[in-house]
Amino acid sequence: MHCESPIKRRKSRQIMVGNVAVGGDAPISVQSMTNTETTDVSATVEQIRRIQAAGADIVRVSVPTMDAAEAFGAIRKQVTIPLVADIHFDYRIALRVADLGVDCLRINPGNIGREKRIKAVVDKARDLNIPIRIGVNAGSLEKDLQKKYGEPTPDALVESALRHVEILDQLNFQNFKVSVKASDVFMAVAAYRKLASLIEQPLHLGITEAGGLRSGTVKSAIGLGALLMDGIGDTIRVSLAADPVEEIKVGWDMLRSLKIRSKGVNFIACPSCSRQNFDVIKTMNDLEQRVEDITVPLDVAVIGCVVNGPGEAKEADLGLAGGTPSNLIYIDGEPNQKLTNENLVDNLERLIRAKAAQKQAKIDEDAKNIIAKA
Asked: What's the rounded Cα separation, in Å, for the pair 137 and 355?
């Protein structure tokens, strides 16, 4: 019932953002960006920790001023996740956060200023082995490109990116990744596809300014999903006008759906109809919130009736098929026990946690055996 993923990753150069590998054969990383005032150190630290707890691999922080740079240094000391500093215009900010322990600099070399300033930032990045992300955005294209193309286009985005790439090439600096973001799905997808064929560096994917939680999720899933299915992309950020934690959840849902990377519970649930023998929607809403802390990959099917229930449940690690007078639980594809609707969510949570613990123990045991044989 479940097909293997046919996706073949684009070959790219690998860089390190802190302790997270990006590109090459490394897992596609998931990241988000804080939306607190960076100078509010406690609020920013608290948000970064929530983003990390949701499953982020990397977090980006805007650093628009020297005061924010000093605050970044304080933040860096209080969190463990790799941090990217988002910097525009003032090269001195880049130099300062580099000394304060930044793991990656998000800049556009062309807007840093004169060649001497660009070289100073690149030299510092080289000396401290800090990668750079070139971040091109359709909303902030260079004026001459706006005039040349009349409006943002995929070719304009790529031309802008290649300009910045050329600057780094001339400085013999290859430790970088690139993004070419647009709010228009077709524009972003076309730009990334073209750029992927022209450079070997890793690509940071995103549909910028995608919208609110619902509309932005849909737009991002279409755009990033198309690219990921092409094998394009080494790290992703889902841009939502919402709590950054939601960006991480959506990012992981995308990777799980494409069988690229798994983490936490993957629910297979029916949309419910009059055949259901329990309230599927309420059950799912409660379960998703209760088991968000589980990190071990686990497939759980929650199906309201006997039409598709047994088939889906047999393919999952744990499955529930609605029935009368009792619902049937499957574990590892085999019927295991019956549950009534009374305390159904409590009992499901208990079974899911037990199965997750069992699966984690197996993962740990396999890891020990590999180490022992090495």
From this structure: 44
Token duo for residue 33:
């960006």
Whether the per-residue pLDDT at 1 is higher than 70: the answer is no
d(CA 36, CA 61): 9
Pair type for strands 327-331 and 334-339: antiparallel
**The two three-digit tokens of residue 238, written as one number:** 């889902």
List, for residues 281-327, the tens digit of each pLDDT value. 999 999 999 998 898 999 999 999 989 889 999 999 999 999 888 99
Q: Per the annotation, where are the binding residues?
A: 270, 273, 305, 312
Determine contact, residues 204/187, Cβ cutoff 8 Å: no
Locus of tokens 């609707």: 341
DSSP 305: S
333-355 average pLDDT score: 95
Binding site for [4Fe-4S] cluster, residues? Answer: 270, 273, 305, 312
Residue with tokens 């948000």: 47
State the pLDDT at residue 370.
83
Cα separation values, 105 from 96, 121, 175, 184, 357, Å: 11, 9, 11, 26, 39
Which pTM value belongs to this model? Answer: 0.89
Q: How many alpha carbons lie under 13 Å from residue 189 in its C-beta half-sphere?
A: 16
DSSP E strands in the chain: the ranges are: 15-17, 20-22, 29-33, 58-62, 83-86, 104-107, 132-137, 176-181, 204-205, 235-237, 265-269, 298-303, 318-321, 327-331, 334-339
Distance CA 267, CA 343 (A): 19
Tokens at 331, concatenated: 């574990």
Strands 235-237 vs 265-269: parallel, antiparallel or unpaired: unpaired
